[in-house]
Amino acid sequence: MFGYVRLEVRRTLRDKGFLVFGIGMPVLMYLLFTRLGTGAGGASMEWKVSAMVGMAAYGGLGAAIGTGTGVAEDKSLGWLRQLRVTPLGPVRVVVGRGLTGSVTVLPAVGAVLLAGALVNGVRLPLWQWAALLALLWAGTAPFTLLGLGNGYRLSSQATGLVNTGCLMLLAIVGGLWFPADAFPGPLRSLSVWTPANRFADLGRSVTAGTAPSLTTVAVMLAWLALFGGYAVHAYRRSTRVI
């Protein structure tokens, strides 16, 4: 399985589209949000830190979900048919591809954090930087499984559209672009139960110097189980139709 993971990681990191849109776009959006239209005094440090966490989460979310697009392309090329004759069972295939997604989200998350430190002058203790990177990395697991489920279940064309729709919806409703506190009452109540909102809360708790709440951890684990079951089910269905 780890040989399979190494192969997929190399393929992803060689993709120029991933490097430009998966890594460059979140950094560009972060800098636009914090450095344009902020007046002579510039954006406050509080906003720079909050936006950094939100855009790092957005970058990780996009890279994680985007893993499914490559799966759908592999399916159309017959790669899943080749996997069927290997000793890898459905769960191991999904876990292996999930680990690939987990590795490839690190550049997307790390690039935004680096921009916060080098360009916007964000200063945090070393342990907070390490904890922030680790929690945002681990928190992408449910979104990787969602993207994989879509990739195994849908055609390559449909997967790209559905994954983009999922990314935008989760990011907006989850408050990654704009604070959820500014939402109307019903939407604000819904937002706190979405995986993207709790994903960003992992990072915001670290920058506030506290541990993530038990509610946040429980919500993330629930979404992990739900999307994991969806990914395994979708893979099993895909092997019956190819």
Keywords:
242 residues; mainly alpha
Describe this structure in words.
- The structure is a single chain.
- It is built from 11 helices and no strands.
- It has one domain.
- The chain has 242 residues and is mainly α.
- Helix 2 crosses helix 5 and helix 3 runs parallel beside helix 7.
Secondary structure category: mainly alpha
Order of helices and strands: HHHHHHHHHHH
Shape: globular
Largest sheet: none
Strand content: under 5%
The end-to-end distance, rounded to whole angstroms, is 22 Å
SSE diagram, text form:
Blueprint: H1 2-13, H2 16-35, H3 45-77, H4 79-84, H5 90-118, H6 126-138, H7 141-153, H8 156-173, H9 185-191, H10 195-207, H11 214-241
Briefly characterize the structure:
With 242 residues, this protein is an all-alpha fold. It has 11 helices and no strands.
